[in-house]
Amino acid sequence: MELKRRSLLAAIGAGTAAAALSACGTGTSTAGSADGPAEGEITLLTPIYEGADGKTLLEKEILGGFRKKYPDVKVNVDYTTYDQLNEKITTGLAGGLLPDVLMMGVGWIPPFAAKKAIAELPEKFATAHDYEKRVLEPSRYDGKLYALPVVLDTRIVVYRKDHFAEAGIKKTPANWAELRAVAKQLTKDGRIGFDPFSINLRQCWETFLFANGGQLFSEDGKKVLFTDARGVEALQFFKDLIKDGSAVYAKKTDTGAPTNVQTGKASMMMTTSALWRQVGEQTPDLIKDDKLGAFILANRKPAMLQGGTLVTQSASSKHPAAARALVEYLATPESILGAAKQRGSVPGLKDLSDSSYVKENKFVDLSLQSMGHACSEGGTAAWMEIREKIKPTLEPAIVGNQSAKDAIAELGRLAEAAIGRM
Amino acid sequence: MATTELQRHGVVGNDRPRTKGKPLSVGRIALYLTLTVVSLLMVAPFVWMVLTSLKTPVEIASQDAGLLPEHWEFGNYVDALKAAPFATYARNSFIIAFSHTVINVLVASMAGYALARIRFRGSEVIFYAFIAALMIPTYTKVLPEFLIVRFMPLAGGNDIFGQGGSGWLDSWWALIIPGAVTPFAVFLFRQFYLDLPVELEEAARLDGLGEFRIYARIMTPQVKPALTTVALLTFESSWNNFLWPLLVTRTDSLRVIQVGLSVFKTENGPQWHFLMAGTTLATLPMVVLFLIGQRYFVQGFATAGLK
After folding, report:
1. Of A76, B32, B131, B159, which is the most buried if we count CB atoms within 10 A?
2. Average pLDDT score over residue span A369-387
3. By the CB < 8 Å criterion, does B25 face chain A?
4. Are residues A140 and A211 in the same domain?
């Protein structure tokens, strides 16, 4: 098993953080009441609002509005990247200095809520705006609300309309049998029919698992469910595509690089809703000439993986009222829309489905319309450990000779062991 | 005086026979050709970096684009510099890298000298402890080091037991002190000091020099390649450090250049044109330093048998 620095740190962090929380006293455990006036100096840890645009958006527009509403609250922003977010949170937690307000990914809430690192939010926040029910699912742990969504990133299938027309294909695949046949038909002259591998393998396999009617974990997050036939079939489907020659793992592209669909080297690909923005910057003619379409992956049911960034509050904040006010403010439609525009992400509110941003971005529009099919990763307190193991455990089945059944069984054993340690 | 004589007679000299005017052999031509090809391969990523920094995003994404930019976008550098306070980041990186270099060269050379030339009880054990420390992966040390910094007594509002404040977090102390002295540098210096002839040391003692003056005036000037190697390696690794400064700082005013560059690496992929422009600027000090010290640098590596 590959020993990655992040999993190593997560493993050390899990133990040390627990020890630090229970033994050190840490000096910040005296959290006040969230019902008092919003005042004081707080810190926001964020992996989004990147670059100069993001910084201006957050500090001038969003926090500018927040300062007007809460003049007695000073917000210090600690920028990080998603790659280092877990390290920042883990070390902060171990040192007893968790930022007052934190932004984290989908699937991250149960692990940190189980450690009592983040605070429960009032249920009224869940009804303050017009959320799709599924949008708030990753924000909950044990039935309680711990976070609010800021931006969503969905996993959808994007295809080349010109390739479809050229091959005489009139409709998008409605199940895997059709998808496999269409991919095979479109594979020719060095072009691959389908590229499922240019997004994270973990998220790709999860999307196929959900579309196959499978689940990752039981409701209480204590039982592994993906080891059944549906999980194996999802991985086997990739192997079948490779056997057909209609998908090639070595042809996957790196994040941010022009994708195979953009360059015409693939006719379909699994991608994120943010691809629209990337296409607009790198290959705008594809949008102008209406050459790109998108659909939701389906087999036993349609499924769209919903990732994204949530905002939550530290359980040990010395200024809980101020922290809560900021959490609430960052999840308002105005803040959400700004963040979504800046990143090309999906604003997870029905209220915003008619905004010009959503209407102009076809992938975001499709994602918002398909929120009823959204499924999320995570769902167990051991997720931070398990998520790091999915890709390296499944990859040998795709690039090597390991069977899909064996790879899934191995992943199941690792996941059960991780859950057992909780 | 005895010491001067020894030094004059070239105990540690490295005079080489001159080869001027001698025709090049076939083997040497082949060697030069091989080295030229290898050099081109090594320099290619840097050339690609500079050229990419001068292209537009559309051109970078284009399959038909040539190696050279169609439109030379020097504005990428201006825009990249506007994206974050890079002058502050560069200043911070320089202060940290310079401090690490000075501390490491000074302390590690003293430690290396002591381990190589002074016989005392437990010196072997201490040396093996340094060797063992070399084998500890960096990432396993991050969390313990973070906790030490966080719970530093009487710092950042902490009491004597390290409670109540934030310790050294978000301060220059956290950026400079941990990792300032590396076991590798101690090891390297020890090896260099071991190679020096004992006559030099004995002559210095006959001249009445104390231990510190023998270290500072007689022995250390003989290990210049080690000094330069350690200085350059320390400066380079400190300049390129990313994770530690990110973990222990919160405010922009203490962030370093590598953390600054991460603003161009978004979750949806890097902004290559800006990232390459920023990286080119961040690489420049390293290139300049290498050009200045390359003779000693190569000599140091060759003498220490490092790759």
Report:
1. A76
2. 94
3. no
4. no
